[in-house]
Amino acid sequence: MTQETNDALRLLLTRRSHPAISLEGPAPDEETLNTLLTAASRVPDHGKLAPWRFLIIRGEARQRAGERLLAIAEQKNGPLGDDLRKQELERFSRAPLVVAVISRAAVHPKIPVWEQELSAGAVCMNLLTAAHAAGFAAQWLTEWPAFDPDVANLFGMQEGERFAGFVYIGRPTVQPAERPRPELSEIASTWTGE
Ligand SMILES: Cc1cc2nc3c(=O)[nH]c(=O)nc-3n(C[C@H](O)[C@H](O)[C@H](O)COP(=O)(O)O)c2cc1C
User: Fold this and answer.
1) Can you give the pLDDT at residue 91?
2) Which family does it belong to (predicted)?
């Protein structure tokens, strides 16, 4: 293996998610963000449909999003206690940058919706890996806002669009302990046809 291959593999073998709450600024600058998004969008995409898009939430928009989330949550659940209010107000401010990956999968004569949705998942994964490669850390979260129609409305989602996830990106402040990974023997087998 070349040094380059080794480095790329090491990156994949060492990446892990960092809790959004542990991510600090500064956020990636504009040029770095463009590189991350370009890498993220370089995914297999049957039919070249680009059935996904990005929505960037950063700076003061994170607080504004939190205020709107709180209003939506209280409208559905009634007044929230102090801790839950704080949680909603600060949800998008946990990291300096949040990239919403939005799936635009739609019925197509040739390309199954499932394949389009898998492609959106690949975008999220590439974004995590690219962030790691650029010295940032990240976490892919959905949480309740990803499934709420009022939140979809708040972020200008079109009919049929869904959040594949919110990818929180920032500078790492802690090295999270490794978590158990599946045993290869339990998830990989060889079909011999015998
Ligand atoms: C589609 C998707 C949605 C997720 N949503 C959440 C979530 O809402 N809350 C949560 O704690 N973890 C969520 N996770 C898990 C974390 O992103 C992550 O898998 C976990 O922190 C361990 O990450 P690692 O194996 O990359 O280190 C989600 C993962 C995926 C793939």
Assistant:
1) 98
2) Belongs to the nitroreductase family.
Q: Specify the residue for token string 């929505």.
A: 55
Q: What structural domains does the chain harbor?
A: 18-59+92-173 (3.40.109.10)
Closest CA to 168 of 19, 8, 32: 19
DSSP string for 100-154: EEEE-----SSS-HHHHHHHHHHHHHHHHHHHHHTT-EEEEE-TGGGG-HHHHHH
| Residue 2: predicted pLDDT | 82
Q: Which are the contacts of 72, defined by CB distance < 8 A and separation ≥ 6?
A: 148, 150, 151, 154
pLDDT at 1 over 80: no
How far is residue 125's CA from residue 147's CA, in Å, rounded to a whole number?
20
Ligand 1 test: best mutation among 142, 144, 147, most atoms within 8 Å of CB?
Answer: 142
pLDDT tens profile 95-129? 999 999 999 999 999 999 999 999 999 999 999 99
* Rounded Cα–Cα distance for residues 43 and 148 (Å): 27
Tell me, what's the pLDDT at 146?
A: 98
Distance 180 CA to ligand 1 centre (A): 14
Residue 12's pLDDT is: 95
